[in-house]
């Protein structure tokens, strides 16, 4: 029987990534865990080796550091055992846009979008050649709702959603499965790390429930998984509205409301 593929998980030292590590180890996969905090990665890998017998490798890396990111890129590019990439590492930033410095926003973009995209780019040729492989990208419902006021964070997550949808169209026919997961507020350190008290939020999902739900979507080969959304048809209606506009973009002339003579008259 073919061995189960190894799973590389970014941001595996705590939170959502650590639960993914636990679940995939219990499913019989070997792991490569990536994050900055070596002590936490070692503690998790020791527990998982002991409890599940999985082989667990650690790659200590700051994904906002070009050189360290390049090391992780090489690993996903060259290690043919890695058949599942989970792009989970991410952060939010404290305050509103006016409080954030150019360096704050650049760091967020670098972790949440650039690192994620580079890792997908590094692994894709190998997956396409093999005609198989899975990519799980962790986005957020914030990427659908500028109303939440997490503007740059939400913009990075909208990028992850768009990227994943584009990859689904491009890579799906080549045998590569891409899932994008949109959690809502989940009890992890991300809130504290970005200066927010999770206990002030109206509703918070526990991290085990979030990951187990996301894995139900993964097992169904769902493309977009929104664990907290009660009515899946709402997403379908939203996406259908978006798609219904596509044929209308091909126009030689601007819409009537932008014709200067008509705009003046109205
Ligand atoms: N929790 C929520 O409410 C929520 C909601 C929607 C989406 N999400 C998304 O879910 C994903 C996981 O977040 P979480 O809630 O589990 O957050 P978390 O508990 O803060 O964990 C974030 C993980 O990313 C790693 N990380 C952070 N900065 C890094 C860097 N520069 N280089 C490498 N690793 C880095 C952290 O490890 P080290 O500190 O050891 O590096 C940690 O393992 C993120 O993409 C987040 O945007 C979370």
TrEMBL record:
SUPFAM superfamilies, alphabetized: NAD(P)-binding Rossmann-fold domains (SSF51735)
Keyword Plastid in annotation: no
Protein name from the UniProt record: NADP-dependent 3-hydroxy acid dehydrogenase YdfG
Alphabetical UniProt keywords: Oxidoreductase
SMART domains: PKS_KR
GO molecular function ontology, one term from the record: 3-hydroxypropionate dehydrogenase (NADP+) activity
Domain Ketoreductase: 5-184
Family indicated by similarity: Belongs to the short-chain dehydrogenases/reductases (SDR) family.
Enzyme class, first EC level, given as a word: oxidoreductase
Species this protein is from: Phyllobacterium bourgognense
Enzyme Commission numbers on file: 1.1.1.298, 1.1.1.381
Domain of life the protein comes from: Bacteria
Purpose: NADP-dependent dehydrogenase with broad substrate specificity acting on 3-hydroxy acids. Catalyzes the NADP-dependent oxidation of L-allo-threonine to L-2-amino-3-keto-butyrate, which is spontaneously decarboxylated into aminoacetone. Also acts on D-threonine, L-serine, D-serine, D-3-hydroxyisobutyrate, L-3-hydroxyisobutyrate, D-glycerate and L-glycerate. Able to catalyze the reduction of the malonic semialdehyde to 3-hydroxypropionic acid.
Catalyses which reaction(s): L-allo-threonine + NADP(+) = aminoacetone + CO2 + NADPH; 3-hydroxypropanoate + NADP(+) = 3-oxopropanoate + NADPH + H(+)
UniProt keyword Nucleotidyltransferase, yes or no: no
């Amino acid at each position: 029987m073919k061995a189960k593929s190894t799973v590389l998980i970014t941001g595996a030292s705590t939170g959502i990534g650590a639960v993914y590590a636990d679940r995939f180890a219990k499913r019989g996969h070997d792991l490569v865990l990536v994050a900055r905090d070596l002590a936490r990665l070692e503690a998790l890998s020791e527990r998982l080796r002991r409890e599940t017998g999985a082989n667990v490798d650690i790659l200590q890396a700051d994904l906002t550091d070009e050189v360290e990111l390049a090391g992780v890129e090489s690993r996903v590019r060259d290690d043919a055992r890695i058949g599942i990439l989970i792009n989970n590492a991410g952060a939010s930033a404290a305050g509103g846009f006016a409080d954030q410095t150019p360096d704050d926003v650049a760091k967020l973009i670098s972790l949440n979008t650039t690192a994620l995209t580079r890792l997908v780019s590094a692994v894709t040729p190998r997956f396409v050649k093999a005609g198989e492989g899975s990519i799980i990208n962790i986005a957020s419902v914030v990427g659908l709702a500028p109303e939440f006021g997490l503007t740059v964070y939400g913009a990075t997550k909208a990028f992850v959603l768009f990227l994943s949808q584009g990859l689904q169209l491009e890579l799906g026919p080549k045998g590569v499965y891409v899932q994008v997961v949109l959690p809502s507020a989940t009890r992890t350190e991300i809130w504290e790390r970005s200066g927010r008290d999770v206990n002030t939020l109206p509703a918070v999902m526990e991290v085990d429930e979030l990951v187990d739900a996301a894995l139900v979507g993964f097992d169904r080969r769902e493309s977009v998984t929104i664990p907290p959304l009660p009515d899946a048809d709402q997403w379908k209606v939203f996406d259908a509205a978006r798609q219904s506009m596509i044929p209308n973009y091909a126009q030689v002339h601007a819409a009537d409301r932008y014709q200067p003579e008509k705009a003046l008259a109205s």
